[in-house]
Amino acid sequence: MQHFDSLSAYLKYLELPRPEHPMFSMYTALGEGFLPCPKESSPPITNDCYSISFKRFVAGDLNYGRTKYDFTDGALFFIAPRQVLQWDSSAVFDQKGFSINFHEDFLKGTELAAQIRKYGFFSYSVNEALHLSPKEERQIELIIENMELEYHNNPDSFSKEIIIAHLSTLLKYAQRFYERQFNSRTELSNDLLDRFNQALATYFDSGRVQEEGIPGIEQIAEELSVSQRYLSDTLKKETGKTTTEHLQLYLIEEAKNILLDPGKTVAEVAYELGFEYPPYFSRLFKKKEGMSPTEYREKYRMN
């Protein structure tokens, strides 16, 4: 797989104009004109750059990791360094919007270098993009317009600091708008929780838990075709519980049913649920239920 360790090399590969800064570039078409077109297709590639883009896909596929873009107009999406990108000649863009690319070293020595790691949406898949309302779109455009003025200005000792300040503002607004999206797309959030539980049920019913153990969150997210971070953020926002907590709740509910079988020891129940160490299962059960597996079994045996 081809990897690009500089911004210039990456943009040259894309057949885009050279950047005005060796580690930062931006292309905009918010009013007149059109964005420059990247090359028609590419096999899987990686690079050391962050990308922030607002574009409208009309048709075709853009693959990001293992996920395809969902073709919703007016989507703002974020790509982190070393993510796998791939697209083909069927992809058709409405060449309006903007595209920002910057090398990760551009942020070195700044507060944003540490802060940017906290923005989980850089770990989302492309089909988990941020869908902006017209008002939100205009707020983002204002930031981009100011950033563009500085980008094309004669560089001085303040240029980089000002551009990074605009970047920081843009990311804060994106965080705010994602919060709104989580709230306004409740139906999708509920669907994701249902699919999460169904994936667990299918996994346990298939007998895989005895062979492979308790599934990891990353594994479940992959089966749902979403990123691990998006799955976690969505469920946390909708239910107040993390993906790990939902997995544990599922395990405890399964354990309750199996514990009512008097022919199985607590250790056998633990192994059946994929726990390598029965004492860990017993501690988790007591933490969630307020009683040990043995006490639970005795309580309901008496009823």
From TrEMBL:
Residues 198-299 form the HTH araC/xylS-type domain. SUPFAM superfamilies: Homeodomain-like. Keywords: DNA-binding, Transcription, Transcription regulation. It comes from the Bacteria. SMART domains: HTH_ARAC (SM00342). This is AraC family transcriptional regulator. One of its GO terms (molecular function) is sequence-specific DNA binding. It comes from Persicobacter diffluens.
